[in-house]
Design brief:
binds FE2/S2 (inorganic) cluster; Elongation Factor Tu (Ef-tu), domain 3; Ubiquitin-like (UB roll); 9 helices; alpha/beta; six-stranded parallel β-sheet; 360 residues; binds flavin-adenine dinucleotide; Rossmann fold; single chain; six-stranded antiparallel β-sheet; globular; 3 domains
Length: 360
Amino acid sequence: MNPFVPIILIGVLLVITALLVVAEKLLGAAGEKRIIINDEKEIIVHGDDTVLNTLTNHKIFIPSACGGKATCGFCKVRITAGGGDIKPTEDPFLSQQERDDHIRLSCQVKVRGDVKIDLPEDLLGAKEYKTRITHIEDLTYDIKLVRFSLIEPDKIDFKPGQYAQVKVPGIDVIRAYSIASNPKDDHIVDMIVRYVPNGLATTYLHKALRENDKVILTGPYGDFFLQEDSNRDMICIAGGSGKAPIRSILSVLKDRGMPRKVKYFFGARSKRDLYYTEAFEQLAKEYPNFEYIPALSEPLPEDDWQGETGLITDVVDRLTDDLTEAEAYLCGSPGMIDACIRVLEKHKIKPEHVFYDKFS
Ligand SMILES: Cc1cc2nc3c(=O)[nH]c(=O)nc-3n(C[C@H](O)[C@H](O)[C@H](O)COP(=O)(O)OP(=O)(O)OC[C@H]3O[C@@H](n4cnc5c(N)ncnc54)[C@H](O)[C@@H]3O)c2cc1C
Ligand code: FES
């Protein structure tokens, strides 16, 4: 056989592949397409960018903590027509129920023809905010409070418990942080950020961010928020920076005279991981309905700790009665939340009364 035949075949295959890629680009990008939102609003699209980017360019802000790299799974939307087949990159994020409901990762769906999507009203309310940093405070050795004062728009409307996204200036990184402030202080957004070693956003927020810096936020987002029309007893469980949304929720309940019974468990390793202790102890003194239970899993000898010790799951298990009529609000690492839910279920909580944000 001619020794050049394999080389010629590979060359032909490469040319065909390149032609197919170019043809796909040209055909995909050609013509005018539409994104139809909730059968009401139409966006005319040229080119074949993703649904996520196209919506962002039209000031509709879908959560997207990984910037479209298919690693966060935040950008889910319901696509009722168009959008093509589910891509392998979407597979790990979609349950069977979500597939049946036509849920897709909007960062993976390209607008190659007309696309119909359903967006919940609250997502349509998310906005982009220009902000200025007006306060940075060390709460512990690895947790900071960061205050963003809104410039444009100068007010935000959010539910206590929801989160916003920070765009890290200079690098293509977006991360979610719960809003720790009271919704009535609608010209600021407080965030409580725990430093993650080598973490892109937290390294910036802890080491580089300065007062007066300008930062872009988007939001509000999330279905973790205080159920305002309920009067059930509440059990709140948080670890680390998970205190942030609970702080917002409790500030609203305090404004209303703490009308519901609240038991708040906070899990930390040792005393140096505790913060806002005095504020919550003061709240407990003022309102008999409110109980604050910090628990240390590894207290140091010098801590001289007289409070609860052990894993937060064990402490909750020990100090919790029947939860049939209670509501639970959980915030922290995915592992902590999964373990706490198992304990709450043991105490007969109803799954529909468990609300959580996993800080993954
Ligand atoms: C809805 C929601 C709300 C959140 N609210 C808050 C909040 O109020 N305060 C807060 O501090 N964080 C919060 N987070 C987490 C936050 O969004 C970031 O994931 C976290 O700050 C790490 O970002 P990074 O860019 O610094 O780290 P990355 O660069 O993303 O990660 C660096 C490395 O650290 C690991 N890693 C990432 N996150 C953690 C973590 N939390 N603990 C240990 N290892 C980690 C990663 O796997 C990776 O290996 C929230 C997350 C979600 C989804
Ligand atoms: S934006 Fe992160 S998965 Fe789509």
